[in-house]
Amino acid sequence: MHKPGELSLTDRDLAELNAWAKDRSDRALRLRIVRDAAAGLSVSQSARELRISRPTVTAWRQRYAANGLAGLEHRPRSGRPARIDEADVVAATLAGPPTPQRVWSARALADHLGLSHTALGKVWQRWQVRPGAADTPLLLPVDPPLPCHHPELLAAGSSADGAAYVVIAEAAAGQQPRVGAATAEERQMRYAALTAMMRGTQPDDPDAAGPRSKGAPARRPADGGTRRPAPQAAAPALPPSLAARWSARRLHVITWGDCVGPQGLPHTARRHTAPAAMGWASTVCLMAQLELRHQPRPARVALDSLADAARELPKSPPGTPFRWLRQGRQEAAARRRTVHRAFDQPALGSFNEKLVIESVRVRGSLSRVEIAERTGLTPQAVSRITRNLLTTGFLVEEERRSTGKGKPRVPLKLSEDAACAIGIHVDPEKITHVLVDLCGNVRDTHTLDVTARSDPQTCMDWMTRTTTRTIEAAGPLGAKILGVGVAAPGPLDVHEGVLLDPPLWAGWGEVPLRAELNRILRLPVLLEKDATAAAIGERWLGAGESGSDFVYLYLGAGAGSGAFLNGDVYRGTSGNAGEFGELTAYALGRVAPGGGPEMVPECAPMSAVVARAGDAGLTVPGGEVTYDAVCGAAAHGDARAVGAIREVARVVARGAVAMTDLYDTELMIVGGPAVPPEVAELYLAEISAAVNRFPMARRVRSVRVTYSTLSASAAAVGAAAGVFHMAFAPRLRTHSGAAA
């Protein structure tokens, strides 16, 4: 052992050093530093020759002098992983920050993941990552390298012995228009939830612990820490139907360990070997992020299926390998849905125009031939209608695309600047005001914090001032405003446009909100229940845009539901359809002595979660326990916070079962202020388990439970979408005014 300050090398020392650094470029620098010291070079001379800092030279000399070769081993900083899972780093980059900023800066992400800024920069360089450049392909550092632009995740599997595979296909350019893009909240939720679940499909491996955000819980194996025995069978063969469907695709198979991937793949599939720094679970999550970014519609269905498979694995016997196969595209469901068809009578020209707008909006972009195929209109009618819509600026042309023989087709899409609408969400805690263009982009946002003592006149004055300023600031787009949509908690009188004693506002009484805003703004004003508005927003701009029937479960200060049935929003006779609390009470048998439903505290999820967390002993240093604080604690693995949310979610889930039986739908969307991304999976898991276990028709119908793409802003954006829905949704009306 060498004394600090003294450094001399014997022949034996030199031999040990050379053997230690042989074929290790990362150790060569430390070897040079020690040899320079033994040769008598000063710290300054050695630093100058090696082109490094003097503190670095001094540190390595002192560590070798004190501890010999052990002192030269790399020691990661406290809290930093010994080995970086680079796929995890890239997936976190694509998911984006849980803050209003649009993309990560290198330093912010490094701090979030607990990595050094230098290490993060090297990962970005190897993978050719450029944050914010959505259309730049990544370079997966597999062998051979794989440029990945628009991937589609087709299969994934792993076993306890480290063997794993991922099958992906590169989508053709222009095959899937980017429409209904995933919001930052949705990307964050799916990244956090899927990462946790996919890591749970593998035994714990402390050496492979990749980066995680500060305070996040350590990874735990799905079987409680017991390493599963290696499976007896190799990866299964593909079903013949899938093998045939994939035969025309350009497939890539990435493998880990001794795995060769599923049997039955086309011989043209390219094989790639993953490096040690690229984890299997994080690669699956990375592929999910890429697909969610470029093909949001089919990705949502596939990722819900993948999440369900991951949830089921802990229930399987130890040793069961994880396997998931993509079972088809969302278009299969689209073929079953009821679509509007065209009418040829001249009097229905307006209906047919709306039909064309609806078709283009749902698909993102369509050529004239494709519009005719989807609507049933004649080519001549499509030509006339699209010419009018191009002239008025509702449609714009994209670049021509070749489809083989014949003249290249010209895709048409909606113009973002063709129209806009204001959406206002009146909530007991905050009023949210947004400006939304025709393509669903939120152009401007304002909020006003309110309390139970806030009076209606002050709130309406703020709404009118903010609307006027927003329209003026929007410039030419503001001149094309179609109206103002207002979403508010029930009960409402939608025919008269009146709020009826809002439950969490003392002293408001009956507020003629629609009439007052219409009088001051001189604009059309539409009043909707908040859950109904959220359902409209999801149908027009989010996860429900290409589905036929679905139910939206809206969780905020209270709980409500909205429904899209037979191609249109269902409001009920008075506009108060979807009252959720009474359904939950009856589902749980909570009946008052008089026979009516009791109030269910859990149907006010935010306050119920805070109360349960407090009863469990959760405290917040230097402040009161708030819902945001409980969600933050749950995201960091606090058992008391997680338990509080799960308990409330289980009660809400029983009400969701009643809705599933009532409406007989296959899609349930969950969102609202009470479901932020960091705890969304807790709600989704409980609700998904209940609606697929308890309903009467569970043997013939499975229910897909998915996260709202609009989430906390669903009601405000949905209120604006309600204006678009009233203006452009194709519908016929009878002489009595009822929808045909």
UniProtKB/TrEMBL annotation:
Domain of life the protein comes from: Bacteria
Positions of region (Disordered): 200-238
Biased composition (Low complexity): 228-238
Pfam families: HTH_29, ROK
InterPro entries, alphabetized: ATPase_NBD, Homeodomain-like_sf, ROK, WH-like_DNA-bd_sf, WH_DNA-bd_sf
Family: Belongs to the ROK (NagC/XylR) family.
Protein name: ROK family protein
Source organism per UniProt: Streptomyces liangshanensis
Lineage: Bacteria, Bacillati, Actinomycetota, Actinomycetes, Kitasatosporales
